Amino acid sequence: MLPMPSLYLLNIVGAAAAGIGRIGVILFGLVLYGCAQTGGIQTSIVPVTVAPEKALVFLSPGSFDALTIVQTNYSNAVVQQIYLRTDALTSGQNYVKATYWGPVGPQYEARENLPYVAFHQARLAAEMQADFPSTRMVISPDYLQNDYGAFSYAIGKGVGNDLCLFGWQQIRTADENRTLFGDTGMIQIRLRLCQAGATQNTLLSVMYHYTLTGAFNSSAWNPYGAPPRLAANIGTAGQPLYPIGRQGELDKPVAATPLMVHGVRPVNVRPASVQPVNVQKVQQVNREPSNAPQPVAPMAATPGAVMPQIPAPPVSTSQPSSQALQGMSTDTMGAGSSRPFQKVTIPSPPCPAGRTNATCE
User: Fold this and answer.
1) Cα separation of 154 and 125, whole Å?
2) DSSP letters of 109-132?
3) Are residues 77 and 104 in contact, defined by beta-carbon separation less than 8 angstroms?
4) pLDDT 10s digits, 207-223
5) Once rounded to an integer, what is the mean pLDDT over residues 32-42?
6) Residue 343: which residues within 8 A CB-CB, separation 6 or more?
7) Based on C-alpha coordinates, what's the Rg of the chain?
8) Are the beta carbons of 154 and 142 closer than 8 angstroms?
9) Which one of 210, 212, 270, 338 is most buried, by most CB atoms within 10 A?
10) Could you tell me the sign of the dihedral formed by the alpha carbons of 201, 202, 203, 205, in that order?
11) To which H or E segment does residue 13 belong?
């Protein structure tokens, strides 16, 4: 065994070595900390104005014009407040405020954290009192949803004919779906509007039609959660899908309608009845010789022309002689008559000047 002085000396040496080891670890940590410092100047949290194209929220076209965008960066969040055009007598400025919680980047690690404040009645009452100090706001009891999930709002009558609205929404994955490696992050939206002569639907439509455009560069950041599952009938045989509003028209086949040919319709024509005609026997009469006078056709009246005068035939008052009776043919006698007729020759009328035909000389 070693003597007592030797054991005491060994204890002193061991204690000295342990102390030197601790000092070395401390010095090594200080060296690493010094190497990690960049030497840059860190500024305090100051809001800055950003360009319109860097807005994290876009409202529907034609609703409210964006005037100024003010952004504040924290170590764990980014806040943008977009001031909107205001046409109202109620005091205050219209705005839409978007708060994104997530990994903002190493350049903002020295900034202070933005504490998370959930939407509850006391908190909402304080915010509405600050934005509408002289307006009584009433929270809607309805459950509403837009493209990002559930939201709510309060409505109130402002100064004059102003109507005011305060809307809020929180976008966050359900607690049971959040992990350290996915579906993290959160977005909060606040909307303050006052408009002269506006209706409740006009102001409420802004909450339905805004668009979020920002995102953090991290695969774990996803406050929207997993996309919803497709309907069970999509891609399944025997489950037809119809255009919206036309299912009743296409659900059952329509009976075929016969083709109608437009043309001439047939007409039933009844034959005309034939009436018997009584034909009387006409006695044949021999024609007169060619030198017999021909009937005179009527002449059209010519302006300035003089119609010829036809003399009347002479009338004989004496009885015809026997020679004249012998010269008369029995054919010229009237049927059933015993009285003889005298043959009379009528001369043709003179033709007008410059005209010649068979009826005139």
Assistant:
1) 10
2) TTSPPPPP----HHHHHHHHHHH-
3) yes
4) 999 999 999 988 889 99
5) 53
6) 328, 332
7) 62
8) no
9) 210
10) positive
11) helix 4-36
Calpha distance 135→157 (Å, rounded): 6
Instruction: Note the pLDDT tens digit of each residue in 341-360.
Output: 566 667 777 776 666 555 56
Mean pLDDT, to the nearest integer, of 35-60? 77
Amino acid at 361: E
- 219 Cα distance to chain centroid: 39
Name the pTM for this structure: 0.56
Whether 96 and 80 have beta carbons less than 8 Å apart is answered as: no
The closest of 50, 83, 86, 95 to 214, measured between CA atoms, is 50
DSSP state of 32: H
Q: Across-strand partners of 84?
A: 66
Q: Of how many residues is the chain composed? A: 361
273: left (phi over 0), alpha (psi -120 to 50) or beta: beta
Phi-psi region of 304 (alpha: psi -120 to 50; beta: other; left: phi over 0): left
CA-to-CA dists, residue 243 to 137, 204, 249, angstroms: 42, 29, 10
Q: Which amino acid is at 150?
A: A
Asked if residue 53 has pLDDT above 70, the reply is yes
Rounded alpha-carbon distances, angstroms, from residue 337 to 55, 74, 209: 133, 149, 122
Half-sphere exposure of 35 (CA within 13 A, CB side): 6
Element (H, E) at 67: strand 66-73
Higher pLDDT, 337 or 197: 197
The whole-number average pLDDT for the span 266-288 is 60
Chain centre to alpha carbon of residue 287: 95
